[in-house]
Amino acid sequence: MKLFIKKSPLFLLIFFTVTFFSGCTEQKPNTPLTVARAFWTATLAGDTETAKQFLTPESYPNFKFILRDPKDFIELGEQSISTTQAQILTQLTRHRANQQETTSLRTILVNQNGQWLVDFNKTHDSMLGSELQLIIEQLSNTMRETIDKGVKIMGESVKDELQQMERALQKDLEEMNREIEQQNKNKQAPETTTL
């Protein structure tokens, strides 16, 4: 017992030192949200090596992310998590030519051997789908504006055509009216017969 008590302070010092340093070791994120946050933070910082630590091996060849501006940022939103896959609604805000552009996408994660990893291929596809939808909306708006302008121009042209048709119809009606009057006059004139 005396031996234990004499060495007790040393034991306590070792115990607390080990406990302290074990608490200081950095643990790799392992929830879909923490992995997604770590991935996007590294990506936006331009740290592709750290970002790749959070990718599925199949995603490595396709992982190319070019920063547009250091003011770019990401917002993570609603999560949908199953045992093998997670999707996190993500808003990527980029700055291009003094304009702020926000793209909605889904960060797709898969659980591989107990570790959540970003499937960049599927994440990128969701980004392309979102950008494609934006392009379609822009095209739709442009087409609608063009059609409206065309209808307005055609409307003026059609209006002129209708006015010309109305004048021609009016002229034809007046001529028909004169012919009818002439026929009526001919009927009313007394017939003279010669014997």
Could you please describe the fold and organization of this structure?
- The protein is an alpha+beta fold and about 200 residues long.
- The protein has helices at about 1-25, 30-45, 50, 120-190; strands at about 75-80, 85-95, 100-110, 115-120.
- It has a single domain (about 30-185), classed as Nuclear Transport Factor 2, Chain: A.
- The chain has a 4-stranded antiparallel sheet with strand order 1-2-3-4, sandwiched between helices.
- The chain is rod-shaped.
- The N and C termini lie far apart (about 170 Å).
- Residues about 1-5 have low confidence and may be disordered.
Q: What is the structure about, briefly put?
A:
The protein is an alpha+beta fold and 195 residues long. The protein has helices at 2-24, 32-44, 48-52, 120-188; strands spanning 73-81, 85-96, 99-112, 115-118.
Number-wise, the strands total 4
CATH class: Alpha Beta
Radius of gyration equals 40 Å
Structural class: alpha+beta
CATH architecture: Roll
- Total helical elements: 4
List the helices and strands and how they pair.
Elements: H1 2-24, H2 32-44, H3 48-52, E1 73-81, E2 85-96, E3 99-112, E4 115-118, H4 120-188
Antiparallel strand pairs: 1-2, 2-3, 3-4
Label this structure with key terms:
195 residues, alpha+beta, disordered N terminus, Nuclear Transport Factor 2, Chain: A, rod-shaped
